[in-house]
Fold:
Amino acid sequence: MSRRTTSLIAALAAVPLFVALSGCATASSDAGSGGDSGSDETVKIGVVGKGDPQWAPFVEAAAEEGITVELVDFGSYEQPNPALSEGEIDLNQFQHIVYLANYNVSSGSDLEPIGSTAIYPLGLYSKKYDDVKSIPEGETVAVPDDASNQARALLVLQSAGLVELKSGGTIFSDLADVDTEKSKVKVTALEAALIPTSLPDVAAAIINNDFVEDSGLTFDDAIAQDDPEDPNALPYVNIFAARAEDADNETYLKLVEIFQTNEDVQAGLLESSGDTAVPLQTPVKDLVDSLKKVEKDTEAQK
Structure:
């Protein structure tokens, strides 16, 4: 979900793009039934942000392998998963595992990850301190007030040594999970869009990627962020998703390989994220295992 992916379970921030869904049909040829790559197949992939610079070279590279990719552009994050479930598209690529788990549990669907793309680290910023260690004990740090971003923000603060979470940290952590006696800083929650203007009033703040540049900061200004190697970050890896019956489709897996290994695609991915994306080739089994765990945890919360 590129840098948009930081506001997820609660539906993420909608991108003002025209929705072109009318007339969408299932992919032609045998793409949905285990066809081999290189057989002039057409695969419809749902995205949010068709104009992002990774997609043009991706379509071109796929064509060189005999696969015609048709990108279906959606105007909000709520639409690509239902379209995939209903067979209007063959794959989608816009979300991370937490978002997919929430959709599956809410809708009773069984969409699965078939490959990773990248993780977009969520950063901690400060106007007062150059590094985390300089933040004095007892200072206040702001986090977003929406559920999914707040949980992820608290995990970042815990990894940075600023707070300790009673549960050890989960995708459902909130301010009540903060062990105030063992934490270095106090934590306050603010509306995500208001945090940049409030940054001078706190020691530091977790700022959603969408608002970083708008607040006069650069992504390089982050004094802490997600560690892609941290197991707690795995649920926030962005993925290609398919219907469960298509999880082993050779054409679809070939498209994932193209995305992960084509230099022009990877360069476009970095460009579209302001060089914040960390490209990943996470084993599919790990993605599926993470999805199942998050789904189980999500069901337990309902």
Remarks:
- The longest strand covers residues 41-47.
- DSSP finds nine helices and twelve strands in the chain.
- Residues 175 and 187 are 7 Å apart (CA to CA).
- The first helix runs from residue 55 to 64.
